[in-house]
């Protein structure tokens, strides 16, 4: 710590903030795979010299693929869909109620996670299932908007 303060005449906090800022700039730029021109526009507003801007650009171009591969390794491995089974159960009567209709939908969701297959069993009533379907259809509809398409395009 005293090396930086003594030799560079810069406080440790300033160095720490600089390293954190540089890390953030490179990680976010690599996540979005922004173009060379977009990167230059992003750092131009920081007010650095042209020489430093070129060094940062070269640092980004040289390391963006490696940064993306490291980020993909750090990303959590989420389960993926394999198959789905469902069953509709209807209770027509009970000892206390001779005439009743009580439907229930049972869903068995098979998932793949890290080469292993797991199953989740869920049960719901038809009205909740219909509400869930409507919400999912609404989300799919929102994915077709220009705003979402632009975000997805930048994520690739």
UniProtKB/TrEMBL annotation:
Name listed for the protein in its UniProt record: COMD2 protein
CDD domains for the chain: Commd2 (cd04750)
Domain COMM: 80-147
InterPro entries per record: COMM, Commd2
């Amino acid at each position: 710590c005293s090396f930086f303060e003594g030799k560079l005449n810069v406080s440790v906090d300033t160095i720490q903030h600089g390293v954190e800022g540089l890390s953030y700039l490179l990680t976010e730029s690599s996540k979005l795979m922004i173009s060379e021109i977009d990167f230059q526009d992003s750092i131009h507003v920081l007010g650095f010299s042209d020489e430093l801007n070129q060094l940062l650009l070269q640092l980004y171009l040289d390391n963006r693929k490696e940064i993306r591969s490291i980020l993909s390794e750090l990303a959590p491995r989420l389960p993926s869909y394999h198959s789905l089974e469902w069953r509709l159960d209807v209770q027509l009567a009970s000892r206390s109620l001779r005439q009743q209709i009580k439907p229930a939908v049972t869903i068995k969701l098979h998932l793949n996670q890290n080469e292993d297959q797991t199953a989740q069993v869920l049960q719901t009533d038809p009205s909740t299932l219909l509400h869930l379907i409507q919400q999912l259809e609404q989300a799919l509809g929102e994915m077709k908007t220009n705003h979402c398409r632009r975000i997805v395009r930048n994520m690739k």
